[in-house]
Amino acid sequence: MNLRRVVVTGLGALTPIGNTVEDYWTGLVNGVSGAAPITRFDATKFKTQFACEVKGLDVEQFIERKEARKMDLFTQMGLIASDQAIIDSGLDLEKSNLNRIGVIMGSGIGGLRSFQDEVTDFARGDGTPRFNPFFIPKMIADICAGFISIKYGFKGPNFVTVSACASGTNAIIDAFNYIRLGKADVFVTGGTEATVTEAGVGGFNALKALSQRNDSPQTASRPFDKERDGFVLGEGAGCLILEEYEHAKARGAKIYAEMVGGGMSADAYHLTAPHPDGEGAGNVMLNALEDAGMKPEDIGYINVHGTSTPLGDISEIRAIQKVFGEHAYHMNISSTKSMTGHLLGAAGAIEAIASILAINNSLIPPTINHFTDDEEFDSRLNLTFNKAQKREINAALSNTFGFGGHNASVIFKKMSE
What we know:
Blueprint: E1 6-14, H1 21-29, E2 36-37, E3 50-51, H2 65-68, H3 73-89, E4 101-106, H4 112-124, H5 135-139, H6 143-152, E5 158-161, H7 167-180, E6 186-193, H8 198-206, E7 236-244, H9 245-250, E8 257-266, H10 279-292, E9 301-303, H11 310-324, E10 332-334, H12 337-340, H13 347-361, E11 363-364, E12 389-390, E13 395-402, E14 406-413
Parallel strand pairs: 4-5, 4-6, 9-10, 9-13
Antiparallel strand pairs: 1-7, 1-8, 2-3, 6-7, 8-14, 11-12, 13-14
């Protein structure tokens, strides 16, 4: 069957280094770190006392107070990012067939703050159940997609994808495939996460997953550096408008890029650790390339998962070298998590946006915080250390991997007729 073409016509971002797409991109290319001491709770007794929080956000500028109180922060952030993307797309909703517009948002955890607060309050009480009537709707991971569809009247496919840190990328792939198959014309898609809470930080500390570099938060996320000691927890949301090409062309939409491939795989290895040889990571990139009908040498830039964990960075680079061979030395590779931290279920969305903007601006965002070379990494690889690099690229690939061995990759390329 003939698959329909899919393009990106709108972007929205709410991140630790910028609350709009423009500010996010400016932060990326200037190597700005979003890490700082935690303000959302008193973290003085925690092993990790810093995170990449969204800064200067006044939710009530975007969402009426009564409505905002019905939402967890992850929903609020997702709704704000989706508003940005829809406005950016220029869609005329009065002229659109709302039955053909869907919403798929990813979230690895959902309303963790709401769950934590309600259960904590109950445990501190006398056993009498006094729960907020919005407790369940605030907590469940699908509710952000529900709010977006209700606000705009979108009546196409509507759901959440949950695959830990791969959730946002899986959401984008699902939306991509539904459009290709003719099930919808437009999708609002991406990911959102807000887990900078006592439960979130404490839980990841218990897994020994987080950096504990409390004396230097801004340099704590250091992918590929020999002294890396774990990831930095982030929060925020990213949103893309994916649209069938002919639909977008007919309304004269601006087009950022064409989405041409999506790959998925499983490590089938361990709950939290990646396969040491990067087997699943290699398979997912091969799957994405096959789906796109591309060869490894067609890719000019990889936005890697690159979380700054001792094992994860090594296994991903091994996979890249195996898949791309000699071409691995002719690409740019970078981890924007060095600046944003790890947004879990929203990571894939904001990193897809970074990849698209790299294509549009012929500029590769850097991997910051590189201080000490690690002999595990081939020095011939261009890991784009510390400073953005100018480069014309036709296509970019973005990787996201999640606990449970979930792997997802997406490929975007310059628009052509």
